[in-house]
Amino acid sequence: MKVLLLNQTYYPDQAATAQQLRDLARHLLAEGCEVTVMTCRRSYSDPKRVYPAEEVIEGVRVIRVGSTGFGRRSFFHRFVDGVTFEIMLLLRLMFLRRQDVTIAFTSPPLIGFVALLFAALRGGKCVQWVMDLNPDIAYAVGYLKRTSLRGRILTAALRFSVRQSDHVVVLDRWMRQRLLAHGVQAERVIVVPPWPVNALSPADFDGGKRFRLRNGISEKFVILYSGNHSVAHPLDTLLRTALEMRDNPDVLFLFIGGGLREADVTRFRLAHGLTNIRQLPHQPREVLHESLSCADLHVVVMGEAMSGLVHVSKIYGVLATGAPYVFVGPRASHATDLISDCRYGYQVDHGDTQALKSVIANAAALTAEQKQALFENNTAFARDNCSVTRSLAGFLSQVIAVPEGPSRAYAPSRA
User: Fold this and answer.
1) What residues are paired with 254 via a beta bridge?
2) How many CB atoms lie within 10 A of CB 171?
3) HEC letters along the chain
4) Which of 100, 183, 204, 223 has its CA at a distance of 20 to 30 angstroms from the CA of residue 265?
5) Is 118 left (phi over 0), alpha (psi -120 to 50) or beta?
6) pLDDT tens across 71-84, in order?
């Protein structure tokens, strides 16, 4: 079976969708599919870096097309890069042979519409894999007005592409509700929770120690935020907590990653002269387990209005480390579902720095026995429920016609 995957980023880019797409491609390849990926030639994190136009990576044919290279300086620049990529993608697709299944991730927003056009012209199934629900995110953060001309066009394109596709993959029950509200038939929606991009093996404590030693933080209680610094993941509560704890020399707030809000973290740190904030760039996937394992407390963040629009997949990698974690975000979300199901985790509302400081104090006071119990619970939950094989079992049986084995994807039991 020939499967085409479409997304703006792909390996060796380190963006979350690039890594998830790589896992999906390799899994499909292992199931006997002939896999082609079409993506952008420019690196998502560094648009000056240009990848080869075509190559074979791990048995997957990767075709890359051009785009403008303004980068992520603003929403407008990202929008222009996305539109030019989609135009070049559509032109290149005209020279591609028929595919049995075309799967489009949701970066950039109109790529699902491009996938639907290709499937209509060439034949085969069309699947929309909704990693982020755009343009609804742009409306929620105030980048676009839903009633504007551009907003109406993007909403119409979204609704047409998801309603006409053979299947729509969503990441949680909240996102499913959003798609049903857009008019997608319930039987076409498949819930496939993401999986951790770091290996689901016991936490590499030696790796975490090596990471701490390399970065001179061996003696600190490390509160780690690792991932995308975007407007969908506001870091204000975490930053204000760091400011209020500036006089505690034992605590370090470590930010790893990048994005539009990375500059905000830098400005806040410099404006207040904070030495308890440290910033590091994205870590390569090959050493991601080391950086994640350095944390004494992980922080996962999602904007108050983002439930069902984004899915903070980093929480699965956090569970795999076995360390305690706190979710700063809405009480009605997939992250709080997960906290309830695996039992070990905290939830804090945005703006509640006192609650966050209380969580930090509780995590710092854990005994060795309590840490071991937490480690065993969270790693067991991740091992038993969160893996690429388990997540994709139902999807493969419904879309690719691969028989579903005994493993089932994790999904909360709520209606």
Assistant:
1) 224, 278
2) 24
3) CEEEEECCCCCCCCCHHHHHHHHHHHHHHHCCCEEEEEEECECCCCCCCECCCEEEECCEEEEEECCCCCCCCCHHHHHHHHHHHHHHHHHHHCCCCCCCEEEECCCCCCHHHHHHHHHHHHCCEEEEECCCCCCHHHHHHCCCCCCCHHHHHHHHHHHHHHHHCCEEEECCHHHHHHHHHCCCCHHHEEECCCCCCCCCCCCCHHHHHHHHHHCCCCCCEEEEEECCCCCCCCCHHHHHHHHHCCCCCCEEEEEECCCCCHHHHHHHHHHCCCCCEEEECCCCHHHHHHHHCCCCEEEEECCCCCECCECCCHHHHHHHHCCCEEEECCCCCHHHHHHHHHCCCEEECCCCHHHHHHHHHHHHCCCHHHHHHHHHHHHHHHHHHCCHHHHHHHHHHHHHCCCCCCCCCCCCCCC
4) 204
5) alpha
6) 776 777 888 998 99
- Provide the residue-wise pLDDT of the chain in tens; the chain has 415 residues: 999 999 999 999 878 889 889 999 999 999 999 999 999 999 987 888 999 999 999 999 999 999 998 877 677 788 899 899 999 999 999 999 999 999 999 888 889 999 999 999 999 999 999 999 989 999 999 988 999 999 999 999 999 999 999 999 999 999 999 999 999 999 999 999 888 765 544 445 578 899 999 999 999 999 999 988 989 999 999 999 999 999 999 999 999 998 888 999 999 999 999 999 999 998 887 788 899 999 999 999 999 999 999 999 889 889 888 899 999 999 999 999 988 877 678 999 999 999 999 999 999 999 999 999 988 888 888 888 877 877 887 788 888 775 555 444 445 545 4
Separation between Cα atoms, residue 227 and residue 238, nearest integer Å: 14
pLDDT in tens, 355-375: 999 999 999 999 999 999 988
d(CA 360, CA 336): 18
Encode pLDDT of 197-226 as tens digits: 655 444 455 788 999 999 999 999 999 999
CA–CA separation, 382 and 375 (whole Å):
11
